[in-house]
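Appendix B. Worked example

We walk through a single record from start to finish. Start with the input: the chain for ADP-ribose pyrophosphatase, mitochondrial, Odobenus rosmarus divergens, length 318.
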Amino acid sequence: MAERILGKTLATVSLSVALASVTVKSSGCCSIPACRNTFSSCGFHLSSNIMSSSNGAKENSHNKARTSPYPGSKVQRSQVPNEKVGWFVEWQDYNPVEYTAVSVLAGPRWADPQIRNPAGRTGLVGRGLLGRWGPNHAADPIITRWKRDRSGNKITHPVSGKNILQFVAIKRKDCGEWAIPGGMVDPGEKISATLKREFGEEALNSLQKSSTEKRELEEQLHKLFSQEHLVIYKGYVDDPRNTDNAWMETEAVNYHDETGEIMDNLTLEAGDDAGKVKWVDISDQLQLYASHSQFIKLVAEKRDAHWSEDSETECRGL
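Next comes the structure step. The output line below is what the pipeline stores for this chain.
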């Protein structure tokens, strides 16, 4: 019963938010994560997304996880006001809708459902479209290059004066939103393998290639994914598929093609869950799926690339 699941005792939640070698600096008007090694693997954590949940939802945090209708259905969530998102806020009348998709019910039962979303209430219990109770793990490869003119020179933004960074974006078939070409981690699969596999399937249509084409594609992907990279984020994602008992967690990793030579040898072609794929200029005007805009902003900050024409916008943080 939903009432039992949502009892007063908080269940222990295992959330993979361990980050690699992070040093956080707070100075001036901005709080920008920084790493000891500029272009070695490092991690960033959007802690405000979860830490705010104990006292209610922070502005622009834990919003998509409360939207209706639930993806792929007509199910309307129980409305959860900002001040009552956090589990530490007593709400005896909380009566979330229960929903688990038929396709999910037909699959295996992965774990004990007595577990709660670490960011707070969503207005819906069950698993929705997610296969596992608790965290459902994904991986998001952020492939970037510098925008260049026909002569090969980097293009700078006329207002910020910073170089413009581009990333490979796909248009999701399920909701029509633009997103990072990522996906779910298969059981027993390493994150590094998921990142390369998902990029190949969604941005290069690798599943439809011939054996010869796949071998050539694998050689180019190996060059791209074997270089130094930045772990931009690890942890909870504000995703419209989240429920009180099942939610998305991801590892977002930036692979940067500094010269553009590797990606010049790869032709973008939408495949698998992607309807379209293209290079997109990075700026604060991006409207992306789930928390993807936040991940892209962190990449721009770390690469010292253009993000906003308004310096005050960059100082507001996430």
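Two observations about the output. Helices lie at 2-5, 48-51, 102-105, 191-203, 211-225, 261-264, 292-302, 311-315. The CA atoms of residues 94 and 302 lie 41 Å apart.
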